[in-house]
Design brief:
Blueprint (H helix, E strand, L loop, with lengths): L1 E7 L3 H17 L4 H5 L9 E7 L2 E11 L1 E12 L8 H15 L4 E7 L3 H9 L3 E2 L12 E7 L2
Length: about 150
């Protein structure tokens, strides 16, 4: 059984999963991940979702306000390798979008990388389109920034 739980950004399972995400990112971007690490820090005001498969934490994501009061940035998306292919990442994104919409947010942004084609494909499937690199990602050739209007 798969469950999706909304949690605070200091939740222990969320923190453990983002440690695994960081390890994955370092393996994909060994020469540049140090730059991105400073932008991947999750503040305690972020809203997070943890996915559980048979009561074991297997995936996560979060969002924070970005730029203005109506825009969020989705961050720290990750699903353990053994749990991939079950639609968990898609459901995490949808839960984050729903939560943000409930809070009156209208737009979502995110950044992923050229070394994560599976993430780019997922976001396109969910209606995200590539936008100009924003904020700290301006000028980064490895960054792929995407956005979507929330319903």
């Amino acid at each position: 059984m798969i469950q999706f739980i909304r949690v605070a950004a200091d939740h222990a399972d969320f923190r453990e999963l983002i440690k695994l995400l960081d390890k994955d990112l370092w393996s994909r971007y060994p020469d540049t991940q140090q730059f991105f690490d400073e932008h991947n820090q999750v503040k305690l005001d972020a809203n997070a979702v943890v996915a559980y498969l048979n009561d074991v934490p297997v995936g996560c994501g979060c969002y924070r306000e970005a730029g203005d009061e109506h825009t969020i940035e989705i961050k720290r998306m990750f699903v353990k390798e053994e749990a991939r292919g079950r639609g968990i990442a898609q459901r995490i994104v949808k839960e984050l979008e729903l939560w943000a919409s409930e809070e009156g947010k209208r737009d979502a942004l995110l950044e992923t990388g050229t070394g994560q084609p599976e993430a780019i494909s997922l976001y396109k499937k969910l209606g995200y389109v590539q936008v100009a690199n924003y904020g700290p990602y301006v000028g980064s050739e490895e960054s792929v920034c995407m956005g979507k209007k929330l319903s």
